[in-house]
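> tool_call: predict_assembly(chains=three)
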Amino acid sequence: MAITSVKNLKEFSTANERFEGAHLLCPGCAHSMIVRELMNATDDNLVIATNTGCLEVSTAVYPYTSWDTSWIHIGFENAATAASGAEAMYKARKRKGTLKDPDAPVKFVAFGGDGSTYDIGFQWLSGAVERGHDFTYICLDNENYANTGGQRSSATPVGAHTSTAQAGRVSYGKKQKKKDMVAIMAAHGAPYVAQLAPNKWKSMAKGFQKALETEGPCFINTVSACTTEWKFDPKDTIHITDLATDSLMFPIYEIINGRELNILYRPKNVIPVEEYLAAQGRYKHLFKPENRHVIEQIQKDVDEFWEYLQRREEAKV
Amino acid sequence: MAEKMDLQSTEVWDGNYAAAQALRQAQVDVVAAYPITPSTPIVENYGNFVANGYVDGEFVMVESEHAAMSGCVGAAAAGGRVATATSSQGFALMVEVLYQASGMRLPIVLTVVNRALASPLNVRGDHGDMYLGRDSGWIQLDAFNAQEAYDLTLMAFKIGEDINVRLPVMVHQDGFITSHTAQNIHPLSDDEAYAFVGDYKPVDEMLDFSRPVTYGAQTEEDWHFEHKAKQHRALMDSYVVIDRVFEEFEKKTGRKYKRLETYMMEDAEVAIVALGTTVETAILAAKQLREEEGIKAGIVAPRTFRPFPFNEIREALAGLKCVAAMDRSCPMGAMGALYNEVNGALASIPADQRPLMTNFIYGLGGRDFSVKEAKRIFREQKGHADVGYITTPIQQFSGLRGPKLGFYEVKRS
Amino acid sequence: MKGVLATDKRGVRELGAEDLVGWDEVTQGVVLNSFDLEVENPALVPPEERPYSDFNSYTATVASWRVIKPVYNRDICIDCQNCWVWCPDTSIISRDKQMLGIDYDHCKGCGVCVEVCPTNPKSLLMFAEAEDPDAALSQWPEKKKKEKK
């Protein structure tokens, strides 16, 4: 495949953008940063399927498209299946010799939010990965149903306030733990699975390139800080993402062939999760005396998970 | 290259095998499917063709019917021939994506083996699933037997893919009665069949990278209505191409199809309007009644449930005395859909030419519909015709145990 | 406000200001073409050379979303491309590894570019939308001394 050099940002910046402005995503939205990093990481032709969600409703509202590549949206749950259908058609037509340009390199990509990935489209994603289609699925994980006003998803972390798991006099927000989607996708035996963050642009671009290069189904969970529903100033998207990766709320790692785990980013100074939580309105209530125990629990969970990741990395199994 | 299959001029196939053979002969690029009774053998037979080198295309066995249609949409947008099969609950699960396929104007062929919808669960044939698809923007062709299932499946590709149509097409056959009953079939040879269907002509394909296309944009109140109207217009106008393809097929095979099939209607006084295998049952009944009792009975059967043959219904039924519309789906709180649509067509002809119209709900969940019952219904219509009004409830349940069930009596002044 | 490398098609329409054509003129299947002409591979063609169609959001503007805007000071910039990589609106124009300026047709004024700018003083600062660019540059702050920790 034709790779854009990601040796340094200067090299990377020579990519010709294929994701256009005047889309309708919120100012400061991380979705478009991630989409741009993906599209700028390759010169190959792309067929992109997108689940219903913020990205979809903001980038293809008739009579406008923000995509300079083939793009399709069907429903909330089926971008993985749309991509697998297109990929199957590509194989069939290549075999039959009916492609207009049979030598043009092409990559199949599906985008979904955490709502469509962790929840409503879970089965469709699982099926497409099990079937082994050659495509990359990228989850834009902003940990809630942001497009419909911030309802809880199974990616919403413990303690976060959402409109359907509210913090109130007798509630500290969401009670259930976030689903470990990365582990679930690795358990499918997918050849490349990773969790990446846009603030760490190099590991993200490299991870995308790896996924696109790898034959077979790849899954990448990306943290997409949501200015609107996490409640922070739009200018702070990268700052908040830094807090997410440096507090290890969002560790950056990859799993190869369902087994080999590599940590891709080790913060020099790990910051307490409290700093990350304090920077966002959705966790404001946790700082009341009666909810402090939740912060302690979150810190404990984060520490344990980081320990687990390190042990798995060392064990090489 | 896929191997060709040597076929006899007469084969003994059931409806499922006939449909699977038509998919193979059309050289479909992608079949994305999920099995469900009674259409499962379509997928299994096709899988057998794949396993033995008769198919060059991709065969994608997905994890649900929703995914089957989703895969079909993705594949069709990528610019090739696409087909799948389903029934009943699977059809219901597909419904969301059926609307998206037609809205995107993707000519997918869906072979539907009609089966009842739960609850209660039932695997036998009725038209609940076919009716569920009637507002979905697909062309709906209805086969009354296995030969027609084969013929119409081949024609479905040619109709849907026509540059002036570009709409998805369902080919319906009745669960078990057609799908699992072996009959003599006269297939085309592989070469003849493919020559008839022709090469797929890509339109707005996602794999033409020099011309990137966006599929599935959102439209709100300022654009949605215009797009839906344009799509409706395409479906309404599709009859032109349907008629042309029917003619071409007749030239090739001698087998004649019309959007509204009529039997013994030249001098008919009473008629049954029906879909599916009931049509052949009613034909037998009418022949016997004509011979034995001199009742001038005829049958009218939409070959295209969508686009609905509105004008043809008006022409065929004007001047008749009494007509029974047979609905093999429980309308739940209304008159049957076929009754309503036929009546809707007749409402615009002069009152003195308008027949009396009754409605029968019958055959649900595979309940047998016999020649004897068809004859009884014809006789009853003759009775209404003779006295000039409907002497029974306008809607009746036929073949139902327990006290007679019917609705809406005509009050005589 | 047209910025650097603007083409005659960039940002020519406010969203919602397009012609509301009738049912007979909307596109078949709601399909949108990104370009009017064939482009062999858009990844190899810079935006200013692409035959954008009217359906491409490149031709629309969201400038009216802004209440504050980033102003770019070329004199201080080190072309690190931080602003380019993290701009959510494809509004940092870089060519040949150089930052050229801001696409004010597509910038929504989120301020991310300013936050991620590493120079001292920053090469990008937010100003009121109505502020004159030259006036903004004349008010640029001096280099800040590092605060002792």
